[in-house]
Amino acid sequence: MGEVLAGYLTAQAGAFLRALPQAVGEAGSRPGALPASAAAADDLLRSVRRVGGALHTFGAAFDPAWAQESRTELRWLLNLLAQEPAYQRRSTRLLAALDSLADTDPAGPGMLAGHAGAPKARALLDRQLTLARTRVHTVLLQELRSARLHALADRMTLLSGDVPLLDGEASAPAEALLPRAGAALAALSAGAERLPLQRAAVPYGGGGLHRLGTAADVRGPVADAETAVAADDAPWLRARILLKRARYALEVCGAPVPELDGLDRVLGRHQEAADAAVTAATAARTPRITPATAYVLGVVHADQRLEVEAARYAFGQQWPGLAPGLGGWEGPPAPRKA
Amino acid sequence: MGEVLAGYLTAQAGAFLRALPQAVGEAGSRPGALPASAAAADDLLRSVRRVGGALHTFGAAFDPAWAQESRTELRWLLNLLAQEPAYQRRSTRLLAALDSLADTDPAGPGMLAGHAGAPKARALLDRQLTLARTRVHTVLLQELRSARLHALADRMTLLSGDVPLLDGEASAPAEALLPRAGAALAALSAGAERLPLQRAAVPYGGGGLHRLGTAADVRGPVADAETAVAADDAPWLRARILLKRARYALEVCGAPVPELDGLDRVLGRHQEAADAAVTAATAARTPRITPATAYVLGVVHADQRLEVEAARYAFGQQWPGLAPGLGGWEGPPAPRKA
C-alpha cells in the first residue's frame, strides 16, 4: 500500500514543483506578470487538489499532525489560486449568457434581443467582475511572495522525495488502500442520498426558482433569498467535494471511473451557475442603476438558476445508473499500479 | 352524414341558447352584473368554439355565404367573451408565480424570498391586469346589448331547429364526414411538423430564453425582443388552433381522442405562459418603477418563458406517440352516433 500511495504523492508533488515557478513566475520576475502562465496555474491547482484529496482519504497512513497541517496549507493555496480563474470563468459565462439573451441575429435571437438594458447590464457585470478579479489578483501577488508559500513549497519538496508514512503502513499490502477508497465512495453515496434527486429527475420541476430546499434548522420565515438559495445549493456543493475526493481516491488506487469525471463536470457547472446567479443578483442591487438594467439582470439571474436546475437534472439522470456499482465498490482485484 | 352533423350542431346551438341569458344576464338586469355567471360564460364559449370549428371543418356541407358569415360572427363573440376570463387566468398565474418566487416559507422558499421589489411588482401587475380586465369588461357590456349579438342569437336559434345543409349533404352517408375530419387531422399533423420538436425534446435546451426561432421572412437583425418572441411562439399558437379544430371534428364524428384533450391543455398552458411573459415584460417598461421592481419583473418574465419551454417539452414528449395513429386516421368503421 505504501508503495502505491507514496508513488502517487511523489508524482503529484513533483507536478506541483514543476508547475509552481511557471505559475508564480521566476524569482525576480516582475510581479505584475503573475500568474505567468494560466496553464501552469491549472496544473498547480490540479496537483494541489489531488495531494489534498489523498491526504484526506488516506490520512490514517500518515502522522496526523503533519497530514492535517499539510491539508490546511494546501487548502489555503487552493483558495488563493482558484479565485482568479473562477472569476474569469464566471465573467465568460455571464457575458456569454447575456450576449445570447440579447442576440439580434435572426437565426436565433434571444428573449432580450435589442433590449435597451442589455448593454448597460453587460457593462455593469463586466466592470464588477473585472474589479473583483483585480482584487483577488492583488491578494494573490502578495501571498505568492509570502513565507507561507515558501514553507509549503518546502513541504512539497520533501513529499516529492520521501513520503512520511507511519510505520507499518509502508509495508501494508496495496489492497489495504481499498477500504479507504471505499469509504470515500460511501461518503459520496451518502452525500448523493441527501440530494433532492427525485425533484431533480422531473425536468422543469421548477426547483431552481420556486420551492427551494432549506437547511433543516431554519425555523420561521426565511430572512432573505440569498440565504434560501445558499441552503438549497449547499448539499450539491457538498456532493461536489465528496465526488472530487472519491475521484482522487480511485486515482490513487489506479482504478479511475470515467463517469465520475463527467459527473464532476456537471457539478462544476452547477457551482459556476449558482455563483454566477449570485453575481447577477448582487449587481442588481447596485445603487442608481436604471430599471431597464435591473430588469435584464433579473432575466440573467433566472437564466443562471435555470442552468443550476439543468445541472441537477443532468446529475439526476446520470447518478442512479452509476451509484449501485460504486455503493458496493471494493476495488478491482488488485490496483493496476500495485 | 347530415343527420350526424345536424344533430351535433343542433345540440351545440341549444347549449349556446341555454347559456346565453345566464352569461349575458336577463334582459333588464343591471348591466353592471354582467357576465352574470362565469360558468355560463364558459359554457357559452364552449359551444361557440364547437359550432365555429364544425362550420370550418365541414363547411362544404353548408351554403358557403351562410357558413362564412356565421363563423365571422362566432369569432367576434369568441374574442369578446374570451378576453375577460383570459385576463383573470393571467392575473392568477402571474400573481401565483410571483407569490411562489417570493415565498418565505422555510418549507420551500423562492429565489426572490423577502425581496423588496416583490410586493411592488405584485401591486403593479395586479393594478395593470385589473385595469385591462375592466377595460375589456366595459367593451363586453356594450357589445352584449348590441344588435349584432341579437342577430347572432337569432342565427343560433335557427340552427338549433333547422341546420341549413346543402341539398345532397343531408342524405349522404355518415361516413362522408370522415375524410373531412381526416383533413383536419392532416392539417394538425402538418402544423406539428412545423414545430421545432427536436429542440423541445431536450429538456433545458434553453429554447425558451435563448436561440428563439423567427419567421423565415425576417432578414437582418431582429428589431426587438417582442417581435422575436412572437415569431417563436407563432407556430405553437397556430398548432393550438389546428388541434382544437381536430378535436371538434372528431367530436362531430363521435370518435373523440382523449389524448388530444391533454395536448390541448398543454398548448393552452403554452399560450397562457407566453401571454403572461408579455405582460411581465410590458409592466417592466412602466415609467418611474424602481430598479428592484424591474428586477423582480425580469425574473417573473424569465420564469414564464421557462413555463413556455416546459409546455413545449411536454408537447414534444406526448405528440410523437400520438401522431402516427392520427396521420393515417380514417375514422372508426362507423361513427358511434351514426
UniProtKB/TrEMBL annotation, chains A, B:
<dbReference type="Pfam" id="PF05235">
    <property type="entry name" value="CHAD"/>
</dbReference>
<dbReference type="InterPro" id="IPR007899">
    <property type="entry name" value="CHAD_dom"/>
</dbReference>
<feature type="domain" description="CHAD">
    <location>
        <begin position="1"/>
        <end position="324"/>
    </location>
</feature>
<dbReference type="InterPro" id="IPR038186">
    <property type="entry name" value="CHAD_dom_sf"/>
</dbReference>
<protein>
    <recommendedName>
        <fullName>CHAD domain-containing protein</fullName>
    </recommendedName>
</protein>
